[in-house]
Amino acid sequence: MSEKLPSNAVVVQSALRELGADGEVIVLPEKAPTAATAAAQLGCEVGAIANSLIFDADGAPLLVLTSGAHRVDVELIARTVGVAKVRRATPEFVRAATGQPIGGVAPVGHPAPVRTLVDNWLSKHEVVWAAGGHPLTVFPTTFDELVRITGGTAVDVE
């Protein structure tokens, strides 16, 4: 790491250690507002980027870790988790559920566990890159490790 980690990324790195994950949170040279811009900076396929999307599932937070190559079918996800409606969460809802800003939501390091779904498509990649709690941070992991450290459920998201 060439730069000091932002405070949210320090929390994520600590959570990764506590969960027995191997990846180190790194600071990107530039913000990566899309999976494509993150992939370009990391030199990987866009599908290897694990987008962390927080949804409001009948009032409860739901984290969907989806491949950067996919869009989430909210009706499919609602049926999968057994709720009436799944919709994109507001920035305030995301911050309350995760303690992290949109654009940097990590799969771990939240104030309380968040129900998590992990896109099966991510299993096609040996290395998966996930956000590190801040818009400039990411860490390498694997599909199996993402499922394990989040207590998530592997599903199809589209």
UniProtKB/TrEMBL annotation:
Annotated protein name in UniProt: Prolyl-tRNA editing enzyme YbaK/EbsC (Cys-tRNA(Pro) deacylase)
Taxonomic superkingdom: Bacteria
GO molecular function: aminoacyl-tRNA deacylase activity
InterPro entries: YbaK/aa-tRNA-synt-asso_dom_sf, YbaK/aa-tRNA-synth-assoc-dom
Domain YbaK/aminoacyl-tRNA synthetase-associated as annotated: residue spans: 30-148
